Amino acid sequence: MQIPVEGENIQIHSYKHDGHLHRVWEETKVLKANSHLLIGGNDHTLVTESDGRTWITREPAITYFHTDLWFNIIGMIRDDGIYYYCNLGSPFVVDVEALKYIDYDLDIKVFPDMTYSLLDEDEYEYNRLHMGYPEEIDHILKRNVQKLISWIRQRKGPFAADFIDIWYDRYLSYRS
């Protein structure tokens, strides 16, 4: 795996289990990177969907990816607090093109008061059957949903009180 240089801009590509490109985030600033972890930041970045539609993110965000976890976390900085969008997906890899992972449909949205909702269970079940997710993947993802909920409840990792603020300050230092 190629390790990006801190301060470098990279793309993020999510794929579906069948290998089809799902979504591309055009530009994320690498804030920390090693062989197991990548923390990035972006703001008003272009996102391209698999059908060619595009949209621009509305607020600054800090992204958290880890090679040992079957989820990634986006902390979105809004006027009324930090919202998190957590994607259940494969551990990431990085090559010369982008940071890449497989999106496995399930998501958890976390609100500023740390309440949360599990999203897209119907989409997961549909794709699990139609794309033939192996039983092992199903078990891994269900365990990682529980791990992610535990992190939220314990305020661990990106959910810690000052995590997003610290990394957002680092992101801003690259913009000045």
Automatic annotation (TrEMBL):
* Catalytic activity of the protein: a ribonucleoside 5'-triphosphate + H2O = a ribonucleoside 5'-diphosphate + phosphate + H(+); a ribonucleoside 5'-diphosphate + H2O = a ribonucleoside 5'-phosphate + phosphate + H(+)
E.C. no: 3.6.1.15, 3.6.1.6
The protein's UniProt keywords, in alphabetical order, are: Hydrolase, Magnesium, Metal-binding
Q: Which cofactor does it need?
A: Mg(2+)
Known Pfam families for this protein? DUF402 (PF04167)
Where along the chain is the active site annotated? R23 (proton donor)
Positions with a binding annotation for Mg(2+) 1 = N87, D103, D107
- Which parts of the chain are coiled coil? none
Q: Please name the SUPFAM superfamilies in this protein's record.
A: FomD-like
Give any GO molecular function from the UniProt entry: ribonucleoside triphosphate phosphatase activity
Explain the purpose of this protein: Has nucleoside phosphatase activity towards nucleoside triphosphates and nucleoside diphosphates.
In terms of NCBIfam families, this protein maps to: PRK13662.1 (NF010183)
Q: Spell out the protein name for this chain.
A: Nucleoside triphosphate/diphosphate phosphatase
- Organism (species): Lederbergia galactosidilytica
